[in-house]
Design goal:
globular; single chain; Rossmann fold; 16% strand; 35% helix; alpha/beta; seven-stranded parallel sheet; six-stranded parallel sheet
């Protein structure tokens, strides 16, 4: 066992979004293993005393709005594209924080939208901090975008960025940020972690990280908190009258990346082609929803819960589900799939990205053809009758995503700094 470490994890949030949740879990696991771990965040939603909110309201507003204003002025004044990129130009004061000053290591996670600047990361490295940066999306390996949506200019030096609209040019904002990252990465010994093999492969293609030792460490999932039996009573979803249940979850259901339209189309196909299945089934969607217009086209019986913050309610849905569905265009790993599997739901998803590390086609789930709603529908029908037991799926998660084993892999990186 590693000697006790003083570790600071940094994330935009503690509980909002997949990257935040798994970062919080890692912090708790490290503390349970005897390490002095703290999580520093821009936004704090929980009440854990080991989670510390950085800055004050005025400083946070300046950092967040200042970066967005810089982007707005250099993306052709497009509000639609405002959150497609980040620059790392502004961030909260980190080096003077008492927990950072005494820390042996800094674990950076999703730190955009004014949380930590590239300049601050450089200062941390120059002060001798061991910096480990976990890539929950593509931002570390591109100039400025979080997902490239098929653009491969990150293999060169970015520029001509499709997310900068009419302001795209060879020396645009994406190229400027690429240069700053290139200078930072070349001058420091930051250790990078991809949460899936897919992220590692994109990093190996990237002009920023090509040739660096990027390792894969999956996100940890507390299988004990996602057992196959419900840990609470029916939380007013009224699911007992349904024979089959499909669950689809995301922090923001209407985020284009999450591919909700493919799930809706697939369920409509089942409704039309297999009405006997739809007659006693329901699809439950949980996550942020603004107007819900997309659901007006869904003919399959469904429930839209909105955002759920109570763990018991989410675990109840998974434990009642026969299928956990993900039709996202991109997922660096796919946390809802792992959580659903831990509760015994059969995963149905695309497999072109990090989800390939989770689901093997017709072994522990169904991998549909990319963006093919007809094959997603076929996968859902297969999952209903595939014969996989809930215990088998739960045990698969325990074997591959154990919290302490994941934490030990991070601690091993710190040992490498000393050798």
């Amino acid at each position: 066992m590693s000697a006790p470490r003083r570790i600071v994890l940094v994330s935009h949030s503690d509980l909002m979004g997949g990257a935040a949740i798994v970062t919080y879990r890692l912090m708790r696991t490290l503390r349970d293993m005897g390490h002095d771990a703290k999580l520093l965040v821009f936004k704090k939603y929980g009440n854990d005393p080991d989670v510390v909110r950085l800055g004050n309201p005025l400083v946070r507003a300046f950092s967040f709005l200042g970066e967005r204003l810089q982007i707005f002025l250099r993306n052709g004044h497009s509000r639609k594209l405002l959150f497609k990129v980040s620059t790392g130009s502004l961030g909260l004061v980190l080096c003077a924080n008492k927990y950072v000053r005494r820390a042996d290591a800094i674990f950076l996670n999703w730190i955009n939208q004014g949380t930590v600047s590239l300049a601050t990361i450089g200062r941390l490295c120059r002060r001798g901090k061991k910096v480990v940066w976990t890539m929950h999306d593509m931002w570390c390996l591109t100039g400025a975008c979080h997902y490239s949506f098929g653009c491969d200019r990150y293999r060169q030096s970015c520029g001509e960025c499709p997310f900068l609209g009419k302001a795209a040019a060879p020396n645009d904002l994406s190229n400027a940020v690429w240069k700053r990252k290139k200078h930072l990465f070349d001058a420091t010994d930051i250790r990078f972690v991809g949460v899936s093999s897919w992220v590692k492969e994109r990093a190996e293609e990237s002009s920023l990280l090509r040739g660096r030792n990027v390792r894969v460490i999956h996100n940890a999932f507390p299988s004990d908190r996602f057992p196959i039996a419900p840990i609470s009573a029916e939380p007013k979803f009224n699911l007992d009258r349904y024979k089959r249940v499909v669950v689809f979850g995301a922090a923001n259901l209407e985020d284009k990346v999450k591919g909700l339209e493919f799930a809706i189309e697939a369920l409509n196909i089942i409704c039309d082609q297999s009405p006997e299945i739809a007659a006693d089934a329901v699809a439950v969607f949980f996550g942020g929803v603004r107007d819900g217009k997309m659901f007006e086209t869904l003919r399959f019986p469904h429930i839209v819960t909105g955002s759920l913050s109570e763990h018991e309610a989410i675990q109840y849905l998974y434990s009642r589900a026969d299928v956990v569905l993900s039709t996202a265009r991109y997922e660096t790993l796919g946390g809802t799939l792992v959580e659903g599997m831990s509760c015994g739901a059969v995963p149905v998803t695309f497999g072109v990205d990090g989800r390939a590390d989770i689901v093997q086609h017709k072994v522990n789930g169904y991998v549909a053809k990319y963006l093919d709603a007809n094959d997603v529908a076929e996968g859902i029908r297969w999952a209903f009758d595939c014969g996989l037991t809930r215990q088998e799926l739960h045990d698969d998660v325990v074997r591959r995503f154990d919290e302490r084993e994941i934490a030990r892999k991070y601690l091993a990186i710190l040992d490498e700094f000393d050798n």
